[in-house]
Structures are given as C-alpha cells and as structure tokens.
Amino acid sequence: MTMPVILAAASTVRRRLLENAGVPHEVMVSAVDEDAVKQACRRDGTSVGDTALRLAVAKAQAVSEDRPDCLVIGADQILECEGRWFDKPVGRDGAAAHLRDLQGRTHHLITAAVVVEAGLTVWQRRETLPMTMRVLSDEFIDRYLDDVGEAACQSVGAYQLEGLGAQLFQRTAGDFFSILGLPLLPLLEFLRQREVLGQ
User: Fold this and answer.
1) What residue ranges do the domains of the chain occupy?
2) Structure pTM?
3) Cα(146)–Cα(14) distance, rounded to whole angstroms?
4) pLDDT tens per residue across span 152-196
5) Are the beta carbons of 105 and 88 closer than 8 angstroms?
6) Is 76 in the active site?
7) What's the CATH code, domain 5-193?
8) Count of C-beta atoms within a 10 Å radius of residue 152
C-alpha cells in the first residue's frame, strides 16, 4: 500500500499541477506564520534561497505532525530583485506597484519544495530562476490588472506565467513548472521511486 500524499499549501496552481500530472493527493494548509519566519531569517542573515527552503520545510513539518503516515509536500517562492524581497502584493495598488518596480529589470524567482515524512525531510529541491520583465507602460499595467483581477494578488510579482502574465516578460530561464511554483518533474521522479506513481 502506497503512502498518501498531502500538499501543505493553499496554492491553486500547485494543486492543479499535481492534479494534471495524475498525482493522488489531498490538501492541508499549514498554520505557519510565514512573515515571522521571513523576519527571523532576515535578522539571522539567511539567504533568500535558504529562507524559501526553510519556509517549505516549516509548512510540510507542521502538517506532518498531524499526519506522520503521509508524504507531505511543502513549497514556497520568494522573488528577489536587486536585494529587495517581494511578497505577494496586497490589493490592486500593491500589484501595480510591484509591476512598476519590476518592469524593465531582471529579477530572480526562488522556488523551493520538499517532501517530509514523519517530520523528516526525505526530498528537497531549490531553483533560482532569472526572469526579465519588459518595459511596461502604465496603460498596459492598468489593462493587465483589469483583465486578471484578484489573480494578480495570488502570486509573488503579481504575475501568472501560465496566463496573461506571459505578456509581461521579455525573457525567462529555467524550468516552467518551477516558475509556476513546483519543480514538478523531479518531484514526480521521487514519487515514482516511492511507488506512489507507477513506473
């Protein structure tokens, strides 16, 4: 009998990636205070990549405490541009401000994912993805936000590359699934090794 898989995240994109790839799973959102973790990491001088990984582990471990019999997937993304860390924007004004700050620049999207079993990390992956946003007019930003609505506030950077967010970019590099929030192919390989998925 294979171990159940739990996604410790509220992200609809990550849930959809797993569903589309045929990974049976349930969702349990952890109660980790992400802001507190980030503030502690900044005080300690923790790198942005290590912070993303620490958040992913914290989310998965919190759920694993209640479900030690499961493989718990935790994931997190942090956007860094010229030394500044970006969180998910708050409201339309926040999304517009993020896009104005990022337009015409290259930023780095750090994606971290882990699998925790009985409180122990049994798999992890971290990727740093360079993303170059094209120069955007204020008029385009307004039209974009009109079209995407609340979805702009559901991801760091106010973009979703699988949709209209593709129009924001001049160039991206790295794995597409990791940009969306989950290094799916390496994760699927791990789940095959654990016989959650068929060979």
Assistant:
1) 5-193
2) 0.91
3) 24
4) 888 888 888 888 999 999 999 999 999 999 999 999 999 999 988
5) no
6) yes
7) 3.90.950.10
8) 26
